[in-house]
Specification:
The protein is mainly α and 290 residues long. It contains 12 helices and 2 strands, in the order αββααααααααααα. It has a two-stranded antiparallel sheet with strand order 1-2. It holds the Pfam family BPD_transp_1.
């Protein structure tokens, strides 16, 4: 028996498709156009082919920025995911204090990115910042404008403060979806706290945790505003992540061809790694459904 398929739903998403075409597809086409051309000004362009892509593939500057970016994202995920799960496990599950904790955890997520960078820029200053002044008074040498280690610690702690709440809220949602019957059965079997976490809570949270990891990876890999406001990519190039390096190349040096090729490669790396995460999430859902 043939089923009648209603295609009218496409009209509902047509405005979204048009919006995406103008906000994403057309700018990408412009970037692709710049990546295969060269210009000497006066709006005159010359065909360059894949020259800029070859240049960027052999660019030590880009590989250094990519290494710093991967290290930053890895550190962020290794800190925020376990910390977010720990916070979610220790939050009240119901009542007034549960609502209070949810509101407090949501506050950092509401702060604009440039404001977060400004807060930590002032907070870490040795002369007027509470953190910098306190550490200096304790005899701890801390100056994120001169020390690469201090700069890295500052932007990592800043990102952990800003985004760990997202992981915690998603993990808390996963915990709330676990039926009480699971805990009652574990109590009857006299299961330990670790066994409850290992065999009940963690499997039920795995789906939302994969979403949290995917979101946090994409955000951390594309981060620009916060570290740029705090360190500007310095001292030296120690905190010059991919996005900062790309902006310097495109706007600071006005190398449109290399910057366009750089941005496309940057986009493909994010797309590839996000696809890997999505594939893992899909396979996990299929296994749980069996």
């Amino acid at each position: 028996m043939n089923k009648t398929v209603n295609q009218k739903a496409w009209f509902l998403i047509l405005p979204v498709l048009v919006l995406v075409a103008f906000s994403a597809v057309i700018p990408i086409m412009t970037v692709v156009n710049y990546s295969v051309q060269d210009t000497f000004g006066n709006n005159q362009f010359f065909w360059a082919g894949l020259e800029w892509f070859e240049t960027m593939l052999h660019s030590e500057r880009m590989w250094d920025a990519l290494g710093r970016q991967l290290m930053f994202s890895a550190i962020i995920l290794l800190i925020q995911v376990p910390l977010g799960v720990f916070v979610a496990l220790n939050m009240p599950k119901s009542g007034f204090w549960s609502s209070f904790c949810l509101v407090m955890m949501s506050l950092p997520l509401l702060i604009p990115w440039n404001v977060v960078g400004t807060i930590w820029q002032i907070f870490g200053r040795v002369d007027i910042g509470l953190l910098g002044y306190t550490l200096d008074a304790m005899g701890i040498e801390y100056n994120y404008t001169q020390s690469p280690l201090a700069a890295w610690i500052t932007i990592i702690v800043m990102d952990v403060w800003h985004w760990t709440s997202l992981v915690a809220l998603l993990a808390f949602a996963g915990l709330k979806s676990i039926p009480d019957a699971y805990y009652q059965a574990a109590k009857i079997d006299q299961a330990s706290r670790w066994a409850i976490f290992r065999y009940i809570e963690l499997p039920k949270m795995m789906g939302v945790l994969m979403i949290a990891i995917l979101l946090r990876f994409m955000d951390s890999f594309m981060i620009y505003t916060e570290p740029f406001v705090v360190t500007g990519g310095g001292p030296g190039n120690s905190t010059t992540l991919l996005s900062i390096d790309l902006v310097k190349m495109a706007l600071g040096q006005f190398d449109l061809g290399p910057a366009a090729a750089f941005s496309l490669m940057y986009y493909l790396v994010i797309l590839l790694i996000s696809w890997v995460f999505y594939t893992v999430m899909t396979n996990m859902d299929k296994k749980e459904g069996k």
